[in-house]
Amino acid sequence: MSIDLSQALKNIKFEIRSLLFDWGNTVMKVFPDQQGPMAKWNHVEAIEGAGHVLSLLSEKFTLTLVSNAVNSNCELVRQALERVNLNGFFANVFTPHELHSSKPSPSYFNQILIQLKLEPENVVMVGDDYEYDIIGAKQVGLWTIWFNNQHIALNARYPYHDFEISSLEKIPSVLEHHFKTKLSFSKPEKSIFDKLRRLR
């Protein structure tokens, strides 16, 4: 009796309990002309759609920000996140300053799993840097979502990422479709102008 392995894997339900997000160019934009800790930059900006998506995901999952920042420790990262109203969505923030290791080292990700008290199959890594975020996370068995908003052509013989998105707003649909995770989508509030139009 033969077993269809691909079909069998589709029937397995993996419980996703936590999402890890890279910081620079995944959650907040990096401006090359700015120097030093992002919290002290003259201008900071969130990636498009980050606020809405993180708000939705934080209701069901533990969100953790994982960064390779050299100039920022956990406290400074949170200060930068606060400037774009994203700090409250993250239960944890890790940088090399706290872990004494950096991406893509397996030690970096393994320490985070220990801190979260979770197994790799319960965690999804979201990031834009293929080597540091995707390959690094895959080395320890995490699920990976490659945030490829720059539409980079992948020059690799074997793709390490499980999923690819060009917008953060695609994350909920990936989780619902592939992990059978139910998320409640709230429609954006109508503006006062929309309400006035309906009254005419």
Question: What does the secondary structure layout of this molecule look like, with pairings?
Answer:
Blueprint: H1 5-11, E1 18-22, H2 50-58, E2 62-66, H3 74-83, E3 92-94, H4 96-99, H5 106-116, E4 123-127, H6 130-138, E5 143-147, E6 163-165, H7 171-179, H8 192-199
Describe the protein's architecture and organization.
- The structure is a single chain.
- The protein has 200 residues and is an alpha/beta fold.
- The protein has a single domain (14-199), classed as Rossmann fold (3-Layer(aba) Sandwich).
- It is 34% helix and 13% strand.
- The protein is built from 8 helices and 6 strands; from the N terminus they run H-E-H-E-H-E-H-H-E-H-E-E-H-H.
- It has helices at 5-11, 50-58, 74-83, 96-99, 106-116, 130-138, 171-179, 192-199; strands at 18-22, 62-66, 92-94, 123-127, 143-147, 163-165.
- A 6-stranded parallel sheet has the order 3-2-1-4-5-6, sandwiched between helices.
- Helix 3 (74-83) links the parallel strand 2 and strand 3 (92-94).
- The termini are far apart.
- The model is unreliable at 185-200 (pLDDT under 50).
